[in-house]
Amino acid sequence: MKILSDPSAIEAIKKAKNIVALTGAGISAESGIPTFRGENGLWTKLSPEELASFESFYQNTAVVMEWYKHRQEVIKKCKPNPGHYALCELSSVPEHFNLITQNIDGLHQRAGSRDVVELHGNLLENYCVRCGQKYSIEEFDDVFNNAMNHVPRCNCGGLIRPNVVWFGEALPRENLELAYNATIQSDVFLSIGTSAQVRPAADLPVLAKQGGAFLIEINTQHTVLSEEADLILQGNSGEILPQLVEDIKTLLPKA
Ligand SMILES: NC(=O)c1ccc[n+]([C@@H]2O[C@H](COP(=O)([O-])OP(=O)(O)OC[C@H]3O[C@@H](n4cnc5c(N)ncnc54)[C@H](O)[C@@H]3O)[C@@H](O)[C@H]2O)c1
Ligand SMILES: [Zn+2]
User: Fold this and answer.
1) Domain 1-33+80-120+171-255 adopts which CATH fold?
2) pLDDT, tens digit (0-9, with 9 covering 90-100), for 21-69
């Protein structure tokens, strides 16, 4: 065993048919994408309400869009890290595996993961708030770079916004249902790099635990969820996950 020594964790994984992983901004920190909370988190420097809401987008479109444009550029330059690749590898190990993410960076998909349940949208997708027209990142870049005062507009005249869930907005219903269903069926639930403060995503690990799942938290710091966790693996997810997946492969050898 590379990282697992806890007998109850080993027992739970041996019996696991359904494994769910929920990821947050922390899994992408080692790829160079800043988290919101935690050390060096973005929210320690900027107020979320000032940027991540429809009201502020509508009132201060140029400022908000410059911030999102900056984050798009950061994401485009970043690459998946060993944590993302380990979760991709894990997908074929248990009978059922579901990957749910709060991240909007698309790095799981770029690491090869399929069927990623995105709860908060994707920053590299954009759409017109008036007619719904979708803009790929290349199309968006084109409009943004030619826009007056960094206010990107669709041909119909409507404002173009990133396809991300802002404060006060509902999560994509279908994805939320997928996430709930996977969670209540999970035997082992991994909560990775999330401060577990943004609901309803933060409810998922608690729900899993209530349903009898073995809850493993992977984080560099303690969180509000730590008390609930059956096992805490403290450290960088990019280092812990590859070792954990090796252990799970030993405990759940393919038939
Ligand atoms: N990469 C992204 O897509 C990105 C980045 C920032 C924020 N967000 C959005 O902001 C919201 C923030 O909630 P959240 O809980 O995902 O993030 P968060 O910023 O609130 O918390 C990040 C957590 O990751 C931990 N962490 C930092 N580095 C780590 C590492 N190397 N390994 C393991 N853990 C590490 C921190 O201790 C913290 O608990 C989400 O809804 C998400 O949509 C996304
Ligand atoms: Zn339009």
Assistant:
1) Rossmann fold (3.40.50)
2) 999 999 999 999 988 766 555 555 567 667 889 999 999 898 889 889 9
User: 7-15 and 237-251 are packed helices; what angle lies between their axes, rounded to 10 degrees?
Assistant: 60
Q: Does residue 198's CB lie within 6 angstroms of at least one atom of ligand 1?
A: yes
The model's pLDDT over 189-209, given as tens digits with 9 standing for 90+, comes to 999 999 999 899 999 999 999
Considering the entire predicted model, what is its pTM?
0.94
* Nearest-ligand number for the alpha carbon of 134: 2
- The answer to whether residue 120 is catalytic is yes
CA distance 123 to 162: 6
Q: What are phi and psi of 141, to 5 degrees?
A: -55, -45
Q: What is the dihedral of CA 8, 14, 20, 23, to 10 degrees?
A: 60
Q: What is the pLDDT of residues 156-191, one digit of tens each?
A: 999 999 999 999 999 999 999 999 999 999 999 999
Q: Choose which residue among 33, 35, 171 to substitute to test ligand 1 binding: the one with the highest number of ligand atoms within 8 A of its C-beta.
A: 35
Indicate the class that CATH gives domain 34-77+123-164. alpha beta
Segments making up each domain of the chain, as ranges: 1-33+80-120+171-255, 34-77+123-164
- Whether residue 41 has its Cβ less than 6 Å from ligand 1: yes
